[in-house]
Specification:
The complex is a heterodimer of chains A (115) and B (114). By secondary structure, chain A is mostly beta strands. In chain A, the strands form 2 sheets. In chain A, strands 2, 4, 5, 6, 9, 10 and 11 form a 7-stranded mixed beta sheet that branches. Chain B is an all-beta fold. In chain B, a hairpin with a 5-residue loop joins strand 7 and strand 8. The relative contact order of chain B is 0.33. The chains are: A mainly beta (115), B mainly beta (114). At the A-B interface, strand 5 and strand 10 of A face strand 6 and strand 11 of B.
Chain lengths: 115, 114
């Protein structure tokens, strides 16, 4: 079946603009995660959804970052007033199991560049 | 608190020789540990996981890892490297009690010499 998909694959924006990044998880996976991966670093946890609710958003760096998953499937990560430091690859993953104990299936990521 | 340290940012081995990628962890609770691999322009893929069952864990593509509580280590090994093993490898720690706190190491880039 289809894996996790993310759109767009690349996004270039200007400082101060608003961006939305989309994640389509594997069908039936109730757990969904967003990560940010900067160059030369491992992925950094941002937020975890169990169903429609954000079970843990402690990794969001500040209030410019927000994520939703209104129907428990597709999720959108929203970044307001983008800054150059937001440039990174944003990864989405989904899992059958609650929490982080199950295998996570990762999407290919969205490369965000803020000029 | 949880943390994970990958001791080598880059490892280079010759094809057919053993691979050792080192990982040390810190966790206040019984940890669950994973190794993921990231090939260029591809998504992260699970290699293997330890969740308090057997301490020697076998994964895909001939990789295995041993959980050593006394040494707080979870090193990844493979007896014989193949050219297709060249990739970035990440050690990951989480725990049942804080399962959304998923901590990735900074990664080890594995290069294979012909």
């Amino acid at each position: 079946g289809a894996g996790v998909s993310q759109t767009p694959s690349n996004k270039v924006t200007e400082k101060g603009k608003y961006v939305e990044l989309r994640c389509d998880p594997i069908s039936g996976h109730t757990a969904l995660y967003w990560y940010r991966q900067s160059l030369g670093q491992g992925p950094e946890f941002l937020i975890y959804f169990q169903g429609t609710g954000a079970a843990d958003d402690s990794g969001l760096p500040n209030d410019r970052f927000f994520a939703v998953r209104p129907e428990g499937s597709v999720s959108t990560l929203k970044i307001q007033r983008t800054e150059r430091g937001d440039s990174a690859v944003y990864l989405c993953a989904s899992s059958l199991k609650r929490g982080g104990l199950g295998e996570q299936f990762f999407g290919p990521g969205t490369r965000l560049t803020v000029l | 608190a949880q943390s994970v340290t990958q001791l080598d940012s880059h490892v280079s081995v010759s094809e057919g020789t053993p691979v050792l990628l080192r990982c040390n962890y810190s966790s206040s609770y019984s940890p669950s540990l994973f190794w993921y691999v990231q090939h260029p322009n591809k998504g992260l893929q699970l290699l293997l996981k330890y969740t308090s069952a057997a301490t020697l864990v076998k994964g895909i593509n001939g990789f295995e890892a041993e959980f050593k509580k006394s040494e707080t280590s979870f090193h990844l090994t493979k007896p014989s490297a193949h050219m297709s093993d060249a990739a970035e490898y990440f050690c990951v720690v989480t725990s049942y009690s804080s399962a959304s706190k998923i901590i990735f190491g900074s990664g080890t880039r594995l290069s294979i010499r012909p």
